[in-house]
Amino acid sequence: MAHTLPNAEHAPAEGKTRRDFIVLTAQAMAAVGAATVAWPFIDSMNPAADTLALSSTELDLAPIAEGQAITIKWRGKPVFIRHRTAEEIKEAQNVDMKELPDPQTDAERVKAGKEQWLVMVGVCTHLGCVPLGNRSGDYKGWFCPCHGSHYDTSGRIRKGPAPSNLVVPPYAFLSDNRIKIG
To answer: How many Å apart are CA 164 and CA 28, to the nearest integer?
Structure first.
């Protein structure tokens, strides 16, 4: 029997066959199916609606007298809000940056035009303690008695084991006397 060559019209083009197409299509459908099954599990890791509701808070600043500080809770953490005096602002602005372990100007820590308001997360950056306020410590700011970290009137670390300044959360002024944190 003579061997005949297949008709050129029916020959596979460059090694691609119908089987390759079917395999690729099946793999694509399997990937889509896996993503469809995995999505509810991935989506369940997003924060719940009640948690998102706590992600921001608004506060009226009018009752806070000059020189007074209050503490509120935001996302389960204490937030210090201080209505600084002109003397405290001047002290914070006149610090030599070379003296700071974590150099940051006072202007970087407050909103322009609202320098009298200092808003910070009240958690020591050393081990998560809550520092004492009311012009405490060697720099008349905040003092963490647990390990001896001293913060100045701008919440910058000046002395002690804390590696960085108190964190300034995202906040914005909604009006002259109202802020939104978060």
So the answer is: 49
Among 3, 10, 147, 150, the one annotated catalytic:
147
Whether the per-residue pLDDT at 18 is higher than 60: the answer is yes
> Catalytic site residue 126?
no
Look at residues 84, 92, 49, 80 and name the one whose alpha carbon lies nearest to residue 65. 84
Global pTM value: 0.68
pLDDT > 70? residue 10: no
Ordered by start, the domain boundaries in the chain are: 11-43, 51-181
**Residue 76: left if φ>0, alpha if ψ -120 to 50, beta else—which one?**
left
Query: 51-181 maps to which CATH number?
Result: 2.102.10.10
